[in-house]
Amino acid sequence: MNDVGIALSGGGVAGCAHLGILYGLEKEKVPVRYIAGTSAGAVVAALYAYGYRPKHMTKLLPLINKELVDYDYPSFVRAFLRRGMQVQGLAKGERLRYLIAETTRNARMADLPFPVALIATDLKTARPVIFTSRPFLRPLPGADVITDIPVADAVVASCAIPVLFQPIRHRDRILVDGGVIDNCPISAVKALGAEKTIAVRTREAAPVESSFDSLLAIVKRVMSITLNNQLKQQLKEADIVLEPEVAPDTLLDFTQTIACVKCGYRHVRERMGEIRRVLGQAEEKVSL
């Protein structure tokens, strides 16, 4: 089989479907040799590259809860009391940074044994910033590539959804969610060396019945629409696109983590015949 790479999109809690996808591929003996991720996909990609297998990552799901969104209430109060104080985001992202640092033992990107790329967006330059575990084998024009950064910092930068999370500062860069510029990094996984690519997309912008009466509801909807329109063009680069139908509005619905994993697993099982044909792998009997 050709060297297979997988690109994991953002989508908040819906990104837990990536675990089901990876678990299904592993059970069916489809080897993933390269991985790239944006936002929620970056969390999964980083842990996978560190050495966690999908079944091990599912044991971390109880830690993926609403407590990860560490709202910066003191800054809100100071901004209210003092004119000129600026609030750059509702949450700080420190709890997510601590979780990733703990689970990866403070590893740096260059320490990871697996070819991986995590995507963020530089607000200053409007360019993608790609954190990798090794130099690209193929050039990727228009992107800044960084290997010397802690994994936890790279993940938090990739997950810094504008307005919801505060931007991350790295040297002279101001970084936000990679989904702003590249929500499903197929080009990055190809640059790592993948010959065949699988793209996993987890969110749709289907019509919804909502009054959008809160800032968070508006932010979630805007992100969904933006990512959906962006992905239409990007997904044409992949050899196969997997689109597990997660429940709507799962961006921050932490009660849906297990359901999203199961959704991803069911979807990859349903598509396995097609996956094998596209990737050039002979059919195998695998006990589940």
From TrEMBL:
The residues that cross the membrane are: 6-25, 32-52
Q: Which SUPFAM superfamilies match?
A: FabD/lysophospholipase-like
Please indicate the residue ranges that the annotation assigns to the motif GXGXXG: 10-15
What Gene Ontology molecular-function terms does this entry list?
hydrolase activity
What InterPro entries does the annotation carry? Acyl_Trfase/lysoPLipase, NTE, PNPLA_dom
- Residue positions of motif DGA/G: 177-179
Q: Which residues form the active site?
A: S39, D177
Short sequence motif named GXSXG, residue ranges: 37-41
Which PROSITE patterns does the record associate with it? PNPLA
Q: Which GO terms describe its biological process?
A: lipid catabolic process
Q: Which residues form the PNPLA domain?
A: 6-190
Record has Lipid metabolism as a keyword: yes
> What are the entry keywords?
Hydrolase, Lipid degradation, Lipid metabolism, Membrane, Transmembrane, Transmembrane helix
Pfam families according to UniProt: Patatin (PF01734)
Q: Under what name is this protein listed?
A: NTE family protein
Query: Which organism encodes this protein?
Result: Planifilum fulgidum
